[in-house]
Amino acid sequence: MNSLSLAHLTILDATPPVLIAAAADAGFQSVGLRLVAPSPLDAFDSILGSEAALRETVRCLATSGLSVLDVETFWLEPDTDVTGFLPAFEASARLGAGQLLVVGNDPDGGRLVTNVARLCETAAPFGLRVMLEFIPYSKVRTLEEAAGVIRTAGQSNAGVLVDALHLSRSGGTPADLAGMTPAMLSYAQICDAPATPPAADRLRAEARGGRLYPGEGALPLDALLKALPPDTPLSVEAPHARYHGRTPRERARLAFTASSAWLRRHRDHA
After folding, report:
1. Of 75, 61, 46, which is closest to residue 6 (Cα–Cα)?
2. Number of domains the chain contains
3. What is the reported pLDDT for 267?
4. What's the burial of 250, exposed, middle or buried (CB within 10 Å: 0-12/13-18/19+)?
5. In terms of C-beta distances under 8 Å and separation of at least 24 residues, what long-range contacts does 60-67 make, across chains too?
6. Which domain holds residue 81?
7. What is the DSSP string of 65-132?
8. Can you list the residues of the chain whose pLDDT is less than 70?
9. Cis ω before 122 (30° cut-off from 0)
10. Which tens digit of pLDDT belongs to each residue from 110-143?
11. DSSP 3-state assignment of 154?
12. From CA 170, how far away is CA 263, in angstroms rounded?
């Protein structure tokens, strides 16, 4: 059975303790936590650097019974020094996280592969798996490109993260997963969206605040679920503009209700 995790981007204005409480109340089995900002323009109050905040987050996880599916967001830029992520790796291990959400944004393919390999080697002692997410507006735009980077990096603790929205908007289809080994697909992100994509310069805005909950749009989610390995954990990453003014608990419940209903429909027709 596919477990459901609540991605931090779905309720990005929530602190980790608030997100965890909302996810547990809604029925999610795990959460994703943002510890690192994608860029300086995305600055936020991270629990990194605050021992008290980290301890409180660990306590909330223990109380709720939830686990941490993944930690984000590690963007690999041309000037990235992966050792700078060590504090985040240490915190991730304390939180019990298993995977790191990584984005490749370096136009130099050779350097990117080197940094992905170094990231894997640095993260391995902490029990962390590096999952490279392809995004149409990053330098690793497609499933094929992401898989090529991971294969060339040659690390056992690396895989490709498939986001239903990015797969569609990059021109891919669930059938493209046929060439992937199950070991490369340790979890996936789901949401929904209209079939017609926005203009290229609006893709980022759609991804960060204009998604729909599973079952509300036209993405081929049933086909994607069939293409994934059985029981792949699913992270619900769906920042929904219509519900931005709702409380974290309300948004978590809406996201879980829609996602679990879609999963039930899929199983009934499988």
Report:
1. 61
2. 1
3. 85
4. middle
5. 60/16, 60/17, 60/20, 60/21, 61/20, 61/95, 61/96, 64/20, 64/21, 64/23, 64/24, 65/24, 66/20, 66/23, 66/24, 66/28, 66/29, 66/30, 66/31, 67/29, 67/30, 67/31, 67/96
6. 4-269
7. T-EEEEEEEEEE-TT--GGGGHHHHHHHHHHT--EEEEEE--S-HHHHHHHHHHHHHHHGGGT-EEEE
8. 270
9. no
10. 999 999 999 999 999 999 999 999 999 999 999 9
11. coil
12. 24
- Give the CA distances from residue 51 to residues 46, 60, 172, in Å, rounded to whole numbers and listed in that order: 11, 14, 42
Q: Give the burial class of 17: count Cβ atoms within 10 A of its Cβ; 0-12 exposed, 13-18 middle, 19 or more buried.
A: middle
User: What six digits make up the tokens of 158?
Assistant: 């690396």
Strand-pairing partners, residue 162, are: 188
The CATH number linked to 21 is: 3.20.20.150
What tokens were used for 176? Answer: 């493209």
Quote helix, strand, coil % in the chain, to nearest 5.
Answer: 50, 15, 35
Neighbouring residues of 89: CB distance < 8 A, sequence distance ≥ 6 = 100, 122, 123, 126, 128
Amino acid, res. 46: S
pLDDT in the model for residue 268 = 80
